[in-house]
Specification:
This protein has five helices and twelve strands. By secondary structure, it is of the alpha/beta class. It has a six-stranded mixed β-sheet with strand order 2-1-3-4-12-11. Strands 5, 6, 7, 8, 9 and 10 form a six-stranded mixed β-sheet that branches. The structure holds glutamine.
Length: 240
Amino acid sequence: MELRIAHLYPEEMNMYGDRGNVLALVRRCQWRQWSVTLTALRVGDSVDPAAFDLIFMGGGQDSQQIKIVQDLHTHKAAGLRQAAERGVVFLTICGGYQLLGHYYKPHQGENLPGLGLIDAYTVAGSQRFIGNVSIRRPDGQTVVGFENHSGLTYLGNGVQPLGTVVDGYGNNGQDGCEGAVSGNLYGTYLHGSLLPKNPSLADELIEKALSVRYGKPIALFPLDDTLEHKAHERALTLKP
Ligand code: GLN
């Protein structure tokens, strides 16, 4: 079994060490003796829609989003859309999440056009949401992380949130939703980085990506996540 991961803009879109999510995905495959390839897709690189099973983009300040958005549409959007159409798993964090939707309207300047892969849009708000976050997923599991954004994200009718906010602000501080899940496309405001403290979410993404790649349901055998669960439980005690 092999998992092929693409990391979009690893230098520019890496707020709060979001690259830790890629490290967690790689290690959770290696701990299961699977081969895993990791490809950085930087400014100027194009995207082969058939070459990857999981695509990751981290967060970034408005200036970083402005810096990469033209390249995103010039060199990557067509390949990313084709990848999404064939079920490739996307994990996007904060600024990356905002660019998965229709647009992000920053405090100043023009709207930043998003990929339009999920029915959502974001407008910069007057308040910056900063602090620890915990959310509850539909299956009852908690997910923990840290948020720092002024963007207010609003989901379209067909888009489910990643979870409902228990502590923190989430998508917009108003509707109790955090993140977005649309098919195999995931977005969230949770930095941390997210996956090391939320191992079941990491395995959910890997299972979905491998199931698409191999055309059949793939179930992962469990790992010893004692340390991960300790970190998760500790994070739950850190109120916003
Ligand atoms: N620049 C965006 C905002 O402030 C995203 C920030 C981030 O990626 N943490 O909402």
